[in-house]
Batch of 2 targets.
Target 1
Amino acid sequence: MAQNRRKKISRRMTQKRRRRMRILFGLAVLCAIVLTGASYLVLYRYVSKVPEHKICDNIYIGNVNVSGLTKKEARELMKEHLQEDMALKITMKVGDRSAEATLEELGLSYKDIGKVVDKAAGYGKKGRLFTRYRQIKGLKKEKLVLGEGFVLDAEKTKAVIDERVEGLADHAVDASIAKSGDGFEIIKEKKGKTVDEKASEEMIVDYLNDRWDHKGFKVKMAVKTEEPSIKAKDLESIKDELGSFSTDAGGGERWKNLKTGVDKINGTILMPGDELSVHDTTAPYDAEHGYVEAGSYENGQVVDSFGGGICQVSTTLYNAVLYSELEVLERYPHSMLVAYVDPSRDAAIAGDYLDLKFKNSYETPVYIAAEIDSANQMRFTIYGKDTRAEGRTVEYESETLTTEDYGVTYKENKEAELGSVQYSGSPHTGKTARLWKVVYQDGAEVSRDIINNSTYEKSDQIIEVGTLTDNAEAAELVRKAISSQDKAAIDAAIAEAKGLSAGESNGE
């Protein structure tokens, strides 16, 4: 019995202790809730001091302080700052040589400045309350710097490197060949260096985003080994003359242009499948590149222009190409007949729309030798490995299909004395023609094919008749006769008009 009573007493005491513990725990929880609520209120009041629509203090994008700005204001400020950055210069070095460009020329821009501004505006505004509090509190001690996210325009950067930097490298040198007596002299190739454009662009972008202090700067461009495209062993097969042609080089200023064009083409090597554009090889046509003003065709007239005569260079080469039986890709006749070759054997060059282009259709390299020799003959000779059948030869025959004689056109010249006659223009007969390729085997004709058809416009003789006089009646008399385009009527009107003028001067 006593034992049972002790058990009951012990059980009641345990229950009392448990009730006290629950009460104490409840009080502790209540206190914690009260304290937490107070802390939350304190934190909330702290973070709420920063206006929701403005960026927190001590936040930078790059070196630009955007604190207290709205997102719109921050974006506008960054655009203004970008304009300042774009005006700065970068010095690109290759070895001990260098070239400059503005960052605008390289196409400097932001990858996504709007996203960066959003990040700046959201700092201290998003996430759990304690996180926001910690972020804003931290800005009191240390500024937050966000990267601008600079990028370059790949095409603009490549254009600048190609134009200004690529030439600074010690590039590979192709093997070359020259005619020497009865044989050929081959000069061995050399390896070199070229600018690694992609790696250089990446290096500049990395610098802009990681270390740039928003001042002009220098960068050492990335380079890589460059192999020569033509090697000495490639040229060992060049032993035979494939074809040649010459025209008389004449003299005067025009001769200088022929010599300049010849020198630019001389020594050209075309590997199998390579193409040559005479325009691209010889242009630009200006004084800086060795050309002078000389006669050329323009709108049916002969006028002086830089590079006048370059068409004779392309024409002479065209015929050498025909005899070499290379593949002609593009060829155009002149607007009017030329004197140095038969119709349909010419090849005009004009602007970027008339060109002579051809391709090395052999399986081995060809070499173009060009010169104006001691007899003043402009000659092109094409060498290579002749794989044509022994005894096979080719000739080219020009056939005139139609002819149209030029006429005479009378024009008034108000600045010339009444009745005076001046000849101008460049009279040319019009023609249509075609060129035949005739193949012979051991002297016997085996084929005849049309190579091209050409049309040459006629160009009339221009005769300018003066009408300058104080006698309006006399001037009108000649003017009406000019409109008739009748020589007899014009001659008669001139005689009558001079009589009127003479009578007036005598007081009649």
Note: The first helix runs from residue 2 to 47.
Target 2
Amino acid sequence: MKFPHFCYLVTLVSVLFSCSKESNTETDKTIDPPIVIDLVPTSAYFPPISRTNQWETVSFNALGWNEENVPTLLNFLEENDTDAFIILKNGRIVLEEYFGDFTMDDNHAWNSAGKNLTAMLTGIAQEEEYLNITDASSIYLGEGWTSLTPEQEQNISIKNQLTMTTGLDYTVDNNFCTDPECLQYLKEPNSNWYYHNAPYTLLDDVIANAVNTDFNTYFSEKIKEPIGMQGTFIKIGYNNVFFSTARSMARFGILNLQEGNWDGTTILNDMDYFNAMTNTSQDLNLAYGYLYWLNGKESFKLPNSEDTFTGNLIPNAPTDLYAALGKNDQKLYMVPSMDLVVVRMGGASDEELLGPSSFDNEIWGYIMDIIQQPTP
């Protein structure tokens, strides 16, 4: 299913969420001049949670980065249907660009990059003892949420949904369909990895039923509002798609780099869960955590494929990078060793894959040309 740009919502839903702006934490902005840091930042920065666009910036000169290579990157982005692009260092903006008629205030679909939001929210629900990821999914979805026998269904856990290891048949006509007749037995859980969207989508119902609260409401209370994000999940067909500004995606990147802490406020306190979420979660696809994509592993699998490929997921990128990756090249990259967050929103570059694509390696080639110091 292809998700068009943000204006697609206008005829689908009636919410307090316009085609270009949402009435929330970052709208009705006062226009504040950027606060430019001329020294190399060493402390983490958290943009204010208020009705303002204030966000500290740091110069290329202060970082010693190669600003002369920026035009090449921007040309590449523009040629590949990019709408928004941001690089943060220690939470501060180094580069922020919008293309065409897309602006800072416009909302864009995250597509499968929104899986990371659900993964973190699952950890919060577990920390609050609403659920345990080792629980059978049927506890929260009810018996008969699949076409399996009760015994087979009981073997599928929330963790299987988080790690794409449910064993449900991904060869059905509609891989997104969450109706019981679409969820059929193929293999035992934990015996195969496949990027199957339907079991993931049902995690939203698992969380909502566990906490006895609307999914959007719980997400807003636990993640969105505490870190100053805006945006909302919208049901489109079988999918639950998150829409927000590029800066809101960047805020979530900062939260990840700070391991679930926002300027002294704990969003996710369970470090065992956070570490499991952002590291290899099973031995079937080493480049996959709890709905997070991981670089620097010995091998990886890709959506729509049963093949295993040798080497790093993104060879040009730092090996400790982990990411939220969505269809049509929605990208949220996080690099702990370099305190970097990189956001890219737009249309498909040259492919329409569900997550990783050749675009990842190409863009990181250009980014590293900017970040790396020239050889004397």
Note: Confidence is low (pLDDT under 50) at residues 1-30.
